[in-house]
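New to this. Look over this protein:
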Amino acid sequence: MNNTREKIVIIEADAASRESLRAAMQEAGYDVSAFAGAHEGLAAVRQSGADVLLLGAVASDPGAPSVHETVAAIRGSAMTEGVRVILLTVPGAEERAAGLDLGADDAVSRPWDAVELVARVRAQLRVRRMDNDLLEKTRLAEEGQQIAHTAFDALAVTEKLSSDAESLDRRLKLGLGAILIVAAVMAGIYFLFVRHTQVDMQRTTATITRLEGGLIHQQNLMADARKLREGQVAPGESPAGGETDSVENFISADVQSVCLLHVSVAFRNQQTGQRLRYAGLNQQGEPLQDSEGNPVLTLEGRGPEVIVDVFGTGFPAGGEGRVVTNRHVAEPWWNNDELSDLTSQGFQAEISSIRAYFPGDPRSFKAEIQNVSKDADLATMRIDMQNLKRPALSIDSGKGAAVTGEPVILMGYATGLAGILARTDEDTAQKILVHSGGDVSQIMDELARRNLIRPIITQGHIGDVLPDKIVFDAQTTSGGSGGPLFNQQGKVIGVTYAVLSGFGGSNFGIPIRFSEPLLAPAAARPAN
């Protein structure tokens, strides 16, 4: 995976035009150097290994090369082989044609349009990449041919030695045959290695690009929040209908204990231990992209780390700041094929941070994983509650706690961050996003400061009770994972963990009794 930013060198005598060109190329995510004189520009091309040269008017200093001489110098030096040259000419088709005759790869008349110029640069970079790919394939073919020649030479030597050594011991002949076999095996291993490396490179690039595409952006958040806001029911209405009285009996006491969990996942290179980072950000605060629209990633530098944000729900149980949630919330890579696939590509997903937010408090609380279950999708976290007092929820782990047909109440942060923004007005949501610069942690802190973090409450009925799961129809979705499922007595009987895709009438919860081994005191807990 080549994450090096492509390099653009600009030679333009006019200071205003030079700065305009520099700004346009930097905005597009390229590594840019700009010079007024041809001498300095040519030196930069030779030293930095530039990919594209934008050549405009050159300074008229004594002894300075002309535009024609500059192009000739580029084309005549092995140090600048492969550099794509775009001439910036005065208006007129004849001038552009003359520039192409000089040996330039493209010519653009002044005044240029920044969008068109960037598009032409991308086109030249695509050609350069294709040329480089062809050269690399040619190099590999030549190396393969050399290995094949070596194998054939070994065969010829072996045949000659065999013909001259009919009287040699049988063991010597076997040894000569082994030489030929080793040579053939070496050639095969070489070709297999090259092919395997190319396939791994493609897989890694595709996976990282998909992950980046799933990150939270301001535009996506606003669109999701607006869509959810339009589909909301009126205040006080129960989305699933049913026993409103039973909700009012305990909702005010328990809702303050249901917290939102924000889990940040980073990626570490297994060989070097370095975190995966963006090469940089543009003026809009978005990751720099290459000419194909993919984020520029690196293991070097000080750019922001690549982070995947995961939201879930938790609730206190057992005291001592312990919170119950799902394992796939605490360890988002668990049973996640895409995140797990990075392991085979040299990257290990790991927790960057976990923050918990409780209704009615403006602070975020640091959390860490305490225990994970080997038998169910459950985990416990320990939260530094500081001076916050939130009662543990009452649980019922008896076998008769869940009864088919009985009403249930569910609390959780379904749809995560977008769902919280949807409960504010459009103007407030927009101000929060602008103020935070799109940073997810800052968005969460601002929502907490404004007392906007509260769980969604839905009602429904139990559809079925199985040995390891409770099937119910209270509405939820992604982000609601880890939410408590209450029976009509106001006791937690299950933990939400899955939505039946394609059928909104059935969701799944894990019976709360499966959490008891995780909540047991350390001395009584079975050894792993």
User: Anything to note?
Assistant: The domain at 7-112 is CATH 3.40.50.2300 (Rossmann fold).
